[in-house]
Amino acid sequence: MPKFITIGYGDRASYDRTPQPIRDTAHARDAKLRSEGAVMGIAGAPVQVRNPEARGVETLDGPFMSSPLPIAGFAIIEAADLADAIEKVSQVPCAVAYGVVEVWPLKETP
Which residues does 98 contact at the CB level (< 8 Å), separation at least 6? Predict the structure, then answer.
């Protein structure tokens, strides 16, 4: 089955202003995705890694990407197709609590 990487963006203030019953339903959706094999995690502090022409590793604390909302977490889910993946994440906390979820098809390499 195809896999998708999801990136959830959202902030605490927006989460807190979302009614509790909606948040509870959203967390139940997360639990369902986990029971289906999704790998989920909360975003930690990022580190940029570079190794130009394999001459030496360079690291820099902080994100490369920017967004008006902070990254809240990641998941790898399985879905029949992109439409199915979108449906699966349309009710997770970031989607319903004034955040956003990106869905990226994962093309595994051999």
Answer: 10, 14, 15, 17, 18
